[in-house]
TrEMBL record:
This is 2032_t:CDS:1. It comes from Paraglomus occultum. It comes from the Eukaryota.
Length: 241
């Protein structure tokens, strides 16, 4: 990769950070480790129809109680902002990010002339991915059971299963009826939290039954536009989602 492209990429990271600093009030410095490399070569999976542009996320998550008493996953950035007492095993960096230099010819960089219709705004891509690293990130994912999604199911230090949504998930609702996804999380927690399962089939059976009993949001809902919305704190009207 030539020096000019590297310098343009570097300036893009600086501009993206400056942009987010104008939008959010950060009480502490945030550190990011980022790479601009050929992700098609290092990660694979690139095809003529699909190519990874970039990705970013929190370096670590920590389980913390929220204002409502529920335990959720907080990204390292927000955990630091909460000023927790006692030693906390923070990672050296708050956000880890990677961007695909293979797409450099398609990126629109700061200083370039008018953006073309087939170009990608690199600063916009970086800012978007950095937001994931800041905590705009859901733990809901396919469960392995047909058309059923769940929050993250993790194993804690005592080898027990725990159901954990992220702090972002606290504000997600099913727009059709205003039902909070946190209510669905609570149902899964009641059925799974603190349990041990000898087989994957046993866990899958509990997941399927819990989803059915509580009419929990499906995979189809998650891939349907506007079926799930973000309802800001203090708002109750689904129209605000």
């Amino acid at each position: 990769m030539d020096a000019q492209t590297c310098n343009k990429a570097r300036q893009s990271f600086i501009d993206a950070g400056a942009l987010l600093s104008k939008i959010f009030k950060f009480p502490q410095k945030i550190t990011v480790v980022a790479e601009f490399a050929d992700l098609c070569k290092t990660l694979g999976g690139c095809t003529a129809d699909s190519t990874i542009v970039g990705a970013a996320g929190p370096s670590r998550f920590f389980s913390m109680k929220g204002e409502d008493g529920a335990v959720r996953l907080y990204p390292q950035v927000l955990t630091k902002f909460a000023n927790p007492t006692g030693p906390v095993p923070f990672d050296t960096h708050d956000i880890i990010a990677s961007f695909n230099s293979k797409l450099a010819p398609q990126f629109f960089f700061p200083g370039d002339e008018n953006i073309k219709s087939n170009q990608i705004d690199f600063v916009g891509v970086i800012a978007h991915e950095f937001c994931h690293g800041l905590g705009f990130f859901s733990s809901w994912e396919p469960s392995g059971v047909d058309n059923v999604v769940t929050p993250a199911i993790i194993i804690d230090s005592t080898n027990k299963l725990r159901v954990r949504e992220t702090i972002f998930d606290q504000f997600l609702i099913r727009t059709a009826d205003g039902k909070k996804l946190s209510d669905f999380t609570a149902a899964f927690e009641k059925a799974i939290d603190g349990q041990t399962f000898t087989t994957n089939a046993a866990l899958a059976s509990i997941i399927e039954q819990t989803a059915s009993d509580n009419q929990i949001t499906t995979t189809t809902d998650f891939i349907t536009a506007n079926a799930v919305g973000f309802l800001p704190k203090g708002k109750t009207d689904t129209e605000d989602a």
